[in-house]
Amino acid sequence: MDWTPPAVAPRADAALTARLRQRIDHLTKPLGALGQLEALMLQAGLLQGRVDPRLDAPQVLVFAADHGLAARGVSAYPSDVTAQMVENFLAGGAAISVLARLHGLPLTVVDAGVRGARAVRPGLIVRPVAPGGTADASLGPAMSRAQCVQALELGREVVGSVPGNALVLGEMGIGNTSAAALLTAHFTGAPLAACVGRGTGLDDAGLARKLEVLAQVAQRHAGVATPLEALAAFGGFEIAALAGAMLQAAHERRLIVVDGFIVTAALLVAHALRPAVLEACVFAHCSDEAGHARALAHLGARPLLALDLRLGEGSGAALAWPLVVGAVALLDGMASFDSAGISGRDASTATA
Ligand SMILES: O=C(O)c1ccc[n+]([C@@H]2O[C@H](COP(=O)([O-])O)[C@@H](O)[C@H]2O)c1
Ligand SMILES: Cc1cc2nc[nH]c2cc1C
C-alpha cells in the first residue's frame, strides 16, 4: 500500500537530557520524589528541545466513525449510538464535553465516517471517508487501500488545522473495540482471546459470540503482511485517522495524551510505521478493557492512571491532562535548592 508516513526522527539529545535531569534534580524536593511526573518533565523538555517546556493551546480531538462489523452483534449497543453521541459531544453533555470544558480545552469532533448526514457546525469537522462507515470485516477488508490512505491523511490534516503543541486524543465508534482487539492481537502477537473484551458491556454469552466472530475475521485476514494492510483489513476510519493524527503530531513534536484501548490500538499502527512516535506519547490510563494492558506492555508504556475506565471518547486522557499541566508547571515554577537556600543531600553526608 502506497503511503509514506511523515518523518518522525528519534531525538537522542544527551546534552539536553543532562541539563533537564540537572534542573529536575535541583528542584526543592528529595531526589526523585515527584516520581512519574519527573519522567513527564523530562519527556516534555526533550520533545520541545528546551529545558523550560510550555503547553501552548492544548486541544481535544475526538475521531468518530461506524463499523460494518457491528452488524455481527459484537457490541452491547446499536450503531445509531455513534451518531447520537457525536450530537451529545457537541451539545456539551458527554463526559469528554464536561472534562474539556472543566480544563478549558477546545473540543473538536471529527466525523470520519459516522452513519447519517450531519451539518457542519463549530467544533465539528465532517469528512467521512465513506458515509456509512467501514465495510463488514467478516466479509472482506473493512476499508479499501484508498480509503485507508484517505483516513490516515484526514488525521494528518486535522492536526495540521488546529493550533497548539499538545493534543488530548479520543474516539467514538460502536464496534471499535473489535477492530482494536484484532489490531492488538496482530501487532502484539498476543492470543486473540487475550485481546477481546466486553467493550460497552457485553455479558458472558455476548463476549463468547464476539470472540467467535473475531476469530473468523482474524482467520479471514490471516495473510495481512504490512501495518497498513492490517489497518485496512480490520478498520476503522477513526482508528486510521488517529494513527495519521499521531504521526503528524509526533512529526510536529506536539505532545500526545493517549486515551484508552482504541487510541492505543491506533498507536500500535503508528508505532509499527514510525517507532519514534512514542517520544511524543503520554499514556493516560490503563483501561478496564481486556487487551489494553497487552498493547501498553508491547509499547513499553507506563500509564499514569488505572481507574477501571472503559468509556473512551478521550475521557481518560482528559482526566490525566491536569497531571501533564502539573508536571510542566512544577518544572517551571519550583525553586531550586540554591535559589531557595535549602540544604541538599550532600550537606547530610558532610555532617555525618
Ligand atoms: O477506551 C477504552 O478503553 C474503551 C473501552 C471500551 C469501550 N470504549 C468505547 O465504547 C465503544 C466501543 O465499544 P463496543 O462494545 O461498541 O466495541 C467506543 O465508542 C469506545 O469509545 C472505550
Ligand atoms: C452511551 C455511550 C457513550 C460512549 N462514549 C464512548 N463510547 C460510548 C458508547 C456508548 C454506548
Automatic annotation (TrEMBL):
It catalyses: 5,6-dimethylbenzimidazole + nicotinate beta-D-ribonucleotide = alpha-ribazole 5'-phosphate + nicotinate + H(+). SUPFAM superfamilies: Nicotinate mononucleotide:5,6-dimethylbenzimidazole phosphoribosyltransferase (CobT) (SSF52733). It holds the Pfam family DBI_PRT. GO terms for biological process: cobalamin biosynthetic process. GO terms for molecular function: nicotinate-nucleotide-dimethylbenzimidazole phosphoribosyltransferase activity. Its EC number is 2.4.2.21. Keywords: Cobalamin biosynthesis, Glycosyltransferase, Transferase. InterPro entries: Nict_dMeBzImd_PRibTrfase, Nict_dMeBzImd_PRibTrfase_bact, Nict_dMeBzImd_PRibTrfase_N, Nict_dMeBzImd_PRibTrfase_sf. The active site is at 313 (proton acceptor). Coiled coil: none annotated. HAMAP family: CobT. Catalyzes the synthesis of alpha-ribazole-5'-phosphate from nicotinate mononucleotide (NAMN) and 5,6-dimethylbenzimidazole (DMB). This is Nicotinate-nucleotide--dimethylbenzimidazole phosphoribosyltransferase. It comes from Methylibium petroleiphilum (strain ATCC BAA-1232 / LMG 22953 / PM1).
